[in-house]
Amino acid sequence: MLLRSMTARNYRSLKAIHMDLAGVNVFIGENGVGKSNLYRALQLIQAAVRGTLAAEIAAEGGMASALWSGHRRNEKNFRIKLDVEVLDEERAITFRYRVEAGLRPPIDAAGFAFEPQIKEEELSIETGRRPVTMMKRAGPGIMVRGAQGRMVEYPERAMTSETAIALLGDAGHYPEIGAFRRMVESWRFFHGFRTDRDSPMRQPCLAVTSPLLDENGANLAAVFATLAHIRGDTIELNRAIATAFDGARLDVPDPGEYAEFGLVFPHLPLRVFKPRELSDGQIRFLGLAAALMSYRHPPLIALNEPEASLHPDMLEPLADMIAEAAQTSQIWIVTHSEQLAAAVQERCGVRPKRVIRKDGATWLEGMRATGVMEDEDNDEE
């Protein structure tokens, strides 16, 4: 699965931006230019697929906060518009999904005043011929392509705060919609791990086989136990940890009811340091290691400022793990760190995209309005 492009309009600092994407994507820029809004816009696509888009926008302050706040043209229907194109390489199918959300009209009593109202949605597929619409929604009414290949009206009307893609995905009768939903739901977003004393990453967790790290890192110990005792291979993980922590090794005892882990340092080889004894940077690095080197590899891993709390000596090992993960997963990184961006560029052969402000809006330096970077045009020539 490959996320080929993303478009976002009227979302926070994203007035109108379209990006063609590669296997590894690194976004670097100063504070306040809107890097995290690029990450967040992609995360909202997943929220739409899960049926939580309205709740996610409400949690960040509602539509009044989420809408583009710069100069607006006199548009009758001012909306957040998100659009992605996803290629299923195995089946040679391209999915395109778009969703538009706006405020409730003053005369409309359905829904609360400041929650996002889903205005339009569309999912189409392309298999080498012209695109075929699989689902289209305008207001509460939904049209969907049925078993006979014709667009028919779905019997249930959507509430203004729920997405049709989630409603139809739950119905179980539409394989293309279900396939797209499963792909996007499997993306993993790691915005930051709690590293305080009560962080779930510092606690034992139930010993349940865990092929992927939870986005809050709560099953960290179970992910390590799965690698050590189910797969029985922690060579790459141990190498990354040893490089980052001056020869330290991961200790993962055979779990009983709970899974646990610790670090053993070469200067104290008989002592296992428990998670509560480790520094914030050490715990954060271990969380990133579990995210990037878990038993199962998600199709897309998005990291927002992964360098936070890390000692500079940990950035090279982090780049090594990113390069390893990029062999099986698409990578999206938002960072302040020139050192990390340069290390990823060296290992993965991709140029970081520099995020800037242009006319008050978030933009990528050297990017054309089509989403193609100027240096990519030069490479083709």
UniProtKB/TrEMBL annotation:
It comes from the Bacteria. Residues 1-47 form the Endonuclease GajA/Old nuclease/RecF-like AAA domain. SUPFAM superfamilies: P-loop containing nucleoside triphosphate hydrolases (SSF52540). InterPro entries: AAA_GajA/Old/RecF-like, ATPase_AAA_core, P-loop_NTPase, RecF-like. Residues 271-340 form the ATPase AAA-type core domain. One of its GO terms (biological process) is double-strand break repair. GO terms for molecular function: ATP binding; ATP hydrolysis activity. This is ATPase. It comes from Aliirhizobium smilacinae.
